[in-house]
Amino acid sequence: xxxxxxxxxxxxxxxxxxxxxxxxxxxxxxxxxxxxxxxxxxxxxxxxxxxxxxxxxxxxxxxxxxxxxxxxxxxxxxxxxxxxxxxxxxxxxxxxxxxxxxxxxxxxxxxxxxxxxxxxxxxxxxxxxxxxxxxxxxxxxxxxxxxxxxxxxxxxxxxxxxxxxxxxxxxxxxxxxxxxxxxxxxxxxxxxxxxxxxxxxxxxxxxxxxxxxxxxxxxxxxxxxxxxxxxxxxxxxxxxxxxxxxxxxxxxxxxxxxxxxxxxxxxxxxxxxxxxxxxxxxxxxxxxxxxxxxxxxxxxxxxxxxxxxxxxxxxxxxxxxxxxxxxxxxxxxxxxxxxxxxxxxxxxxxxxxxxxxxxxxxxxxxxxxxxxxxxxxxxxxxxxxxxxxxxxxxxxxxxxxxxxxxxxxxxxxxxxxxxxxxxxxxxxxxxxxxxxxxxxxxxxxxxxxxxxxxxxxxxxxxxxxxxxxxxxxxxxxxxxxxxxxxxxxxxxxxxxxxxxxxxxxxxxxxxxxxxxxxxxxxxxxxxxxxxxxxxxxxxx
Amino acid sequence: xxxxxxxxxxxxxxxxxxxxxxxxxxxxxxxxxxxxxxxxxxxxxxxxxxxxxxxxxxxxxxxxxxxxxxxxxxxxxxxxxxxxxxxxxxxxxxxxxxxxxxxxxxxxxxxxxxxxxxxxxxxxxxxxxxxxxxxxxxxxxxxxxxxxxxxxxxxxxxxxxxxxxxxxxxxxxxxxxxxxxxxxxxxxxxxxxxxxxxxxxxxxxxxxxxxxxxxxxxxxxxxxxxxxxxxxxxxxxxxxxxxxxxxxxxxxxxxxxxxxxxxxxxxxxxxxxxxxxxxxxxxxxxxxxxxxxxxxxxxxxxxxxxxxxxxxxxxxxxxxxxxxxxxxxxxxxxxxxxxxxxxxxxxxxxxxxxxxxxxxxxxxxxxxxxxxxxxxxxxxxxxxxxxxxxxxxxxxxxxxxxxxxxxxxxxxxxxxxxxxxxxxxxxxxxxxxxxxxxxxxxxxxxxxxxxxxxxxxxxxxxxxxxxxxxxxxxxxxxxxxxxxxxxxxxxxxxxxxxxxxxxxxxxxxxxxxxxxxxxxxxxxxxxxxxxxxxxxxxxx
Lengths: 540, 540
Known about the structure:
Two copies of one chain form a homodimer.
Chain A: H1 23-32, E1 37-41, E2 44-47, H2 48-64, E3 72-75, H3 81-92, E4 96-99, H4 106-115, E5 118-124, H5 128-136, E6 143-147, E7 161-162, H6 163-168, E8 185-190, E9 200-204, H7 205-219, E10 226-228, H8 236-239, H9 241-247, E11 251-253, H10 260-269, E12 274-277, H11 279-286, H12 290-293, E13 300-304, H13 311-319, E14 322-330, E15 335-339, H14 351-358, E16 363-364, E17 370-374, E18 390-395, E19 402-403, H15 407-413, E20 419-427, E21 433-438, E22 443-445, E23 448-450, H16 452-460, E24 465-475, E25 479-488, H17 496-506, E26 515-518, H18 531-539
Parallel strand pairs in A: 1-11, 3-4, 3-5, 4-8, 5-6, 6-7, 10-11, 10-12, 12-13, 13-14, 25-26
Antiparallel strand pairs in A: 1-2, 8-9, 9-19, 14-15, 15-16, 17-18, 18-20, 20-21, 22-23, 24-25
Helix pairs in contact in A: 1-2, 1-9, 2-3, 4-5, 7-9, 11-13, 13-14
């Protein structure tokens, strides 16, 4: 093709092109709203100027310490101000932030620190027992910095220096540089797989910028939103919300432990208007006594993901004036990239219908370009009939750069130009998707696909059942049959026979579990049920 | 630098990288909210599915007609649905949209059509007299398509085909392709300079995407916002709002003529919650009789630019429940790129103080990376003292690609890695900028810089003065002295001497105009005062 008139002498230059980076958001917040509250934690209240200056100090101190572009700086820390600062100060130094799940065991922490080649680890007193043990397992130990939270009196300092002493060496007016390439890595997040070693998911500046904006757009967040940190920052960088809050010059209300009384107290005292969390967080809030729930005179928007929120939880939250948005995403997609955007045509539906619509995962987020439900093998899109189960495929700017030092898995994940989620879903006529299962969790019985989630949903609607997980059990005749692991509510009595009868009333016979086990479900550190353990138990 | 672990085998691919383009927003709106209202115009109400399909048809029909990537398609049309559609259908075909100011004269229109090498012109009956004349001036005429608005009974069809007949040839499920390069041109907007030929400002997909998002972020716009088209779409592509409204699956309330009664009627009937316009539009609304202004029961957000809105207008609008945001931008910056973001620390100020704060241009918009007030020659930033006058410099992703076929001017505009606006301003201590003058409008008297805007602001505060413009007049002793051109309110009587006395009370003696001329101010088609004419008159 010939060069057209629009390509002649119209190149990128310093004036009209800048790498997209969410780090620019905090510089803007500090210059536009220097005196506005940025971070609240117990007795600490810092404005955007102070917070920005601490980030600059951190960046400068890291460079003085010898950190280079592309080095890894790990952090294992609750949702404290220092964890927020690391989301800016570390990339401002050119390094990559690796935020480690605070619930992991020492062996996994040691694996992550070694695999990521972390030069520095920022840790915190509550993490000391695990981190101490992890460091003992390592040959080349990183330099260790201790966050010292004065409001937390337990735990010991185990590092080489405290965070405040470390950043005190840095210049608060340090002239950090934006990356020249927006494809540069910004963070590294290890997935907590249910089996095997975790994989290191690499995010880049461009994607982090765009998902931060996508959050604000899809939620219609205003400037100066007041965000409560119920969602861990180690979880896909808190779904990119540290950068969203900076873009809006909002308020970060920090939270060490997700205790529902404290959540409600902060919602009222700090006028929190936005928070995220798994459905379990919502359940804990709705289970509070009425006096804790009363007294909220403003709307609180809640984004939830990880599992469809039960209807009772949605209704309970909305009765309190909380507005729930259900989203879906993976570590590989910077957190939420599919959102159950509300359609006001549904306003007149019954509460049950509304809850059902809300429990669907939804449509692509504003900044994600592609979403389809397709055959996992030939990748042909499936009909939008609400029935045909296929794999969820995603593509666009909020899909990860790839897995660190794992070329084969990266290539497999991107086969055919789409990211393969491994999640199974149907596509409704209105373009909203609904998850039916993880690929590996589908049960194939007599050639029929059975969604373990569908059986779980039915069982959990029984008033005596608290907790349930369904897996495949080998069967000579059918190939596989469903096996249900069930936790009962305190004091409830229910027999295997009663449960099977209950299922027979509600579902096709071939879907009814053939074996019932009463058990306390084994979970990962992030609360995911460890189905690989249940699969072993099912065969016993 | 060695290749770090984050650069090994983590390339861009089809799954994780997509060119940023605002065209993707309409595909999403149509798939997520197909039945939601997208466009309203008189009797026409189309939803997002219908609107998207018409854009696909337009794109396909353009390609069938022979339009290639990088060709120019011009449009000269009021704010009608077809003008909105062209913002998507034209780039979906790979072509570049050139939206022409509907108030231009035939010679300028002919110049633009020839300079842009337009292959097609979409026109509309109201434009026929000018377009007919322009086409007669041209050797190589473009193919002409007539928009036929059934609600407009005047004017003649002058083209080769009507818009509806043209797009009827296109496929409503046309599989358009996103550009492979986000730096590709998307639109071309000619600046209406006060002298000389207009310059063609080229926008790219990336910038258009980011400014569309910046609008939504800085204004905190919700999904399904209802936007009234008071701002011409030919004006920096309506400040990129066609794309913003699509990103939010909002409603475009179209408007052929900005008549204040009709504006208020639509605000009430269509529950408009967002609109943009020059201060003159706001003045027209506040001047309406009370019965027109009454009956708005929701907040209407108004973005204004072009000149600081007078305090009386701000107060009048806010009394009606309208919330005014003052912004600043240029054709070269996709419209607004500086915004007077409200700070709630100002809530307790007096109305006059608030209006004064609001009349400042403000701070950089969320997606613009750099703003400074610096010496126009050495480009060194000036102190933030509210006094030192320097040039406004901008840099970042919402600065144009450059001027079409005008390498020298493009290079001059970007000297030193910043875009030179030619506007003069001061920088207040709080980082907010305030415009003092255009570079060429500053008056240098006895070595002192005098802001013509400052004198104009003083004069317009006189109750008898309706309109004012101040320019430099040559003076043997002082070099230059201020000369004021004044329009009086109907029935008002005021002498030159009274005006000079009024000025002496309010400003330093060297700033007082030495000559007063009573006149009807000459303006360009966009309403800008033609100071180059006044400069000639000043010497007579």
